[in-house]
Structure formats: C-alpha cells, structure tokens
Amino acid sequence: DQGIAHPILFPSFAKKLLISLCKDVPFQVKCVACHQTLRSHMELTAHFRVRCRNAGPVAVAEKSIAQVAEKFLLRGYCPNCNQVFMDETSTQNHKQNSGHKVRVITSMEESVLLYCHSS
Q: Which of 69, 29, 73, 74 lies closest to 52 in space, CA to CA?
C-alpha cells in the first residue's frame, strides 16, 4: 500500500501553512498546445486570442505539492518533552541524551497532527 497515493486530512493550521509555502514555490505558465512560456497576463491573453485559440494555460512549478508537504514529515515524537524530530539522527541523539522513549511516527496523518500540535 506504500506506493499508492491516498488523500490525507489536513487540519486548517497545516492547510494554511501549506498554501503559504506553495506560494513561495517559483512557477511558469505555459501553453498546453505549443509549450510557450507566457510571462504576463497580457501576453497570456493575447496568445490564446491569436495563436492557440483552443488551448489553455498550465502552471509548471519547481516543486510538487507533495514535495512542499514534506515539511510536515516527522520521524519521531517525545511525549515527555513535547518535541518532534525530523530525522533518525536527532531521534537517536535525544533517546541517548535524555533516556526518554521516543515514539516513531509511521504515517503522514500522524506526522501532520503532531506537527500542528507541537508548533
């Protein structure tokens, strides 16, 4: 089931943060028919009136939404400290230094909820 994409629930806090992060991702608008890059609203309007009348625009971004949402992907959570860990190294370091039992996060849903809870 790992390879199949499934929709996940996003709390409103995470959704608003994801939208603001997506706004920071550079993108270009291109014509779906001829793939010309259209740099302004005026150029876009003229292009579809004159050159590709039956086509439309498409936004091509440098990152997908899934790549932007990786910010919410956590590896571990310490209930004692209410601290989240982004990678295996920081999780292991915390275990060794504090002696706390760190919970391993196994799903994106849990990761998003803990991200919101700890922020």
A: 29
Q: What is the mean pLDDT of the chain?
A: 91
Please report where in the chains the tokens 């860990």 appear, as a residue: 85
Q: How far is CA 73 from CA 33, 70, 76, 84, 116, in A?
A: 37, 5, 10, 10, 11
Radius of gyration of the chain (CA): 21
Sequence ranges of the domains in the chain: 12-70, 71-118
Backbone angles phi, psi at 21, to 5 degrees: -65, -35
Q: What's the pTM?
A: 0.68
Residues 67 and 103: their CA atoms lie apart, in Å, by 24
